[in-house]
């Protein structure tokens, strides 16, 4: 095959995909992680316990994982803009309806189930998998930049939601987030996310032009979804990835659901408490770029993942033993920096171990077993611990133990098999 190795003069379309994915995940995750700001005022206004309200967030993450399996398979077949538009439209509707709930089952159905499933259609599975298909040499950097959107969205929308709750009410904050999801995600996806992969447009990944028509590998997409899923589930590497990122995500979601309330208990104002979550998000921005870049430099990206888990472990130790505002910010910065590795690294490890041909399926399943199951346990776990003991101490102790475990376990992840590396 004759290939022109000179990059085209115009900007490679893959970077537009990065821009669209960045904005999309910023709105998605920023709106999602604002739930920690709503927890206490919702409990006070509706007269429900923290475990009752936080269970809605647990359901959200469980069904986010379920939806990710579907979204990952659809991404292997269709352009991402239609998947993103459908998901953002339904999620915006769910956020708009949430302020009207009057019973826990209504909250669980509207926010937990409806928003959980639909938000996965414009979350990390679709956006990061889409970006991964456009790059090889700069895949870690491109995915890292994309996942920065999660940090930017959390940094901007969490304090905004906190201010709206303080000066208006939590219902108004949900309406504002619904509008942002509908306008931004539904609109911009149509321009930035309309192309599925570079080979369909006469390009190789990273923007290298083709001299003649490219034919996909013989084995591309011939296996059915269930055949591919069964193959993955028989692989120990798949389960190590899912266990590590599942427990790490559980720790993260416990933090996002309960950190603001925890800081408030030490006498700090609600906006100040919310700002610690904002600091965590700011630090995660640096972490996302750093760990994505680092994974390109290491011979094996599992080492970058291990370092990210280690940062989270050190931060959880600080949260457990130190309670001044300065230490809350130190914890938030260190935890956020390590947390910034998660979204990029679980995608990169799946792509590195199993190849791009089944990336949507592999990342979608990890989104369920790791993000979905792990994420759904975090909020309700923290709520039950608080309601039972009157403190978050046991929750942080369990999180610390889990993070120590995954830091060690990820180093046992076996490398890609020779035939997989050859295909890439």
Give a written overview of the molecule.
This protein is mainly alpha-helical and 424 residues long. It has a single domain (13-214, 223-423), classed as MFS general substrate transporter like domains (Growth Hormone, Chain: A, Up-down Bundle). Helix content is 76%, strand content 0%. It is built from 16 helices and no strands. The longest helix has 31 residues, at 359-389. It is globular, with a radius of gyration of 21 Å. The relative contact order is 0.16.
| Uncertain ranges | 1-8, 210-221, 418-424
What is the CA-atom radius of gyration, in angstroms? 21 Å
The second-level CATH architecture is: Up-down Bundle
Q: How many strands appear in the DSSP assignment?
A: 0
Count of DSSP-assigned helices:
16
Task: Summarize this entry quickly.
This protein is mainly alpha-helical. It is built from 16 helices and no strands.
What keyword list fits this structure?
424 residues, single chain, 16 helices, mainly alpha, Growth Hormone, Chain: A, globular
SSE inventory with pairings:
Layout lengths: L12 H21 L1 H12 L3 H26 L4 H18 L6 H16 L4 H9 L6 H29 L2 H23 L32 H9 L2 H29 L5 H28 L4 H20 L3 H30 L4 H31 L3 H17 L8 H6 L1
Helix pairs in contact: 1-6, 1-7, 1-8, 2-3, 2-7, 2-10, 3-5, 3-6, 3-14, 4-5, 4-8, 6-7, 6-13, 6-14, 7-8, 7-11, 7-13, 10-11, 10-13, 10-14, 10-15, 11-12, 11-13, 12-13, 12-15, 13-14
